[in-house]
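Hi U.,

Before I forget, here's the chain from the pilot set. I'm dumping it here mostly so it's searchable later in email.
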Amino acid sequence: MMIHEASQRKTRLTKITFLVVFSLLIAACQGIPAAPLQLSATPAAMTGTRLILATTTSTQDSGLLDFLLPSFESEFGIDVDVVAVGTGQALKLGEDGNADVLLVHARAQEDAFMAAGHGVRREDVMYNDFVIVGPSDDPADIAGSASAAEALTKIAENESPFVSRGDESGTHVMERSLWAAAGIEPTGDWYISAGQGMGAVLTLTNEQQAYTLSDRATYLARTLQGTELVILFEGDPALFNPYGIIAVNPAKHANIQGELANQFIDWMISLPAQEQIAQFGIDRFGQPLFVPDAESWRNR
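Structure:
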């Protein structure tokens, strides 16, 4: 039985690797710089104490998972294999039974996932916000805009380069909603759809001296790597960015580690883990990169 389960999990991780590599090949064909494959899995060592977490690139690129997971793994003796992709891809991995638990940030898509019966449990975990970043000389003059929609309108009218995630991630979903609020369908050479994760998009944006929408955590993490981009617009309530954690439905896929998924969720929403989230980033940035939002934190 153990050998069979290990074989199933190896097959899942092989499928995941193929899907991520395929998306990178598509990006390469479009002339877009490829981001590194963000898959920390060791299929040769698959056992029943391994959990596959599909999550957004922001939780990986910001360093949050490197900060949190060692505590969970050492406390429970469970290894977590992280697949960092856009929220849309993460939800698809869960739907197909190729991940046990999801940590994502696109609430409408999360609710649809639950309504379709692909997930059995969703919990609030944390939040931060989105910001619009760009070159310090701000050629579209978006600083001081009254709203994010107005800032994007100025970028479009000026045809200043804008790099979009273009990957059905939570950030891309938010960006599309902001363009819709502005009444604009962005097209033209100035609008660059990268099909990449947040870290890669910030690198490309910096190279192009363009604008982009970023979660605050990944942007701040990138400042440690010498980016020239600066925050030019922030503070619109529309830029609120909540994260949820979801246990994939084991009734739909026999290989889902339902018990481990719930154990991981219980830990993530526990007060000790929430306190760790509240501390993450303070030593480097003077502020936490994520704000805890589990019920245990709100009721403490």
